[in-house]
Write a structure and sequence with these properties.
Length: 249
């Protein structure tokens, strides 16, 4: 009986892997027509002027359009994170601005402006609703310069590998004004990350494993992501295998 139970569990696990290994491709123009914050945990905006008029801080057009998608009394946090070249392809939730982690009264949102065309973001729709688990497929979304993703910080997502083409993105945080004090650790951050993109079987393997094992990485071990430690320490050793490089450290 014990071996029969183990066999059933093994079959279920294999079926789970085979089902969720499927990735779905979309374009930002098509997706923007029907993706919503309430249903999917994210929506898309597109305007070439977003990219042309935004150097570091969001242009007025971009700021107004983002706030129009959100309920009243949402504000931009004094936070800008610029990312160059590196694909940031490991799946993660934005644990440093998570509603669950920081017990905010209202959802917190990330906005990412893409200043290039091509493969943009991989995202798991409605994964904020099923937090800390993810029951949705990976959706790989491509688009054009001036595409903006606005999403709940607890949505599981990753940058597409995009064959290591040059990339430039700007990331912002938006929260309800009553939650500003709970997110004060983000205030005043002006960070720029430039790295070298590499493509290998190992990178692809780690990317996929970060999707299948997102629960322990983002829910159980998230304190390891807050502060980067030396690789000579025990914590630093384990941080090499989780997406610590995505955060503000």
């Amino acid at each position: 009986m014990k071996y029969k139970t183990l066999l059933i569990l093994a079959i279920v696990f294999i079926m789970y892997i085979l089902f969720y290994v499927i990735e779905i491709n979309e374009t930002s123009i098509d997706s923007s027509k029907w993706r919503t914050l309430s249903k999917d945990g994210f929506c898309l905006l597109y305007n070439p002027l977003y990219s042309e008029k935004t150097t570091l801080f969001p242009s007025k057009e971009l700021e107004n359009d983002i706030l129009n998608e959100l309920p009243q009394d949402y504000v931009f946090i004094d936070y800008v994170y610029k990312i160059n070249n590196v694909s940031l392809s490991t799946f993660h939730r934005d644990v440093t601005s998570s509603q669950y982690n920081y017990k905010t009264d209202y959802p917190v949102f990330t906005a990412i402006l893409y200043k290039y065309s091509g493969d943009l973001l991989s995202i798991c729709p409605a994964s904020n609703i099923t937090y800390p688990l993810c029951w949705s497929h990976i959706h790989n979304i491509s688009g054009y310069t001036g595409t903006v993703f606005l999403f709940n910080c607890d949505v599981l997502h990753a940058g597409q590998i995009n064959n290591c083409k040059e990339r430039e993105v700007l990331q912002y945080k938006i929260c309800h004004k009553d939650d500003l004090n709970k997110l004060k650790h983000l205030h005043g951050i002006k960070k720029e990350k430039t790295d070298i993109c590499t493509m290998s079987f190992y990178n692809l393997f780690i990317r996929k494993m970060s999707y299948f094992f997102e629960f322990p990485i983002n829910y159980i071990f998230y304190p390891l992501m807050i502060q980067k430690e030396s690789e000579n320490t025990t914590i630093g050793f384990f941080q090499k295998y989780i997406p610590i490089g995505f955060y503000n450290n």
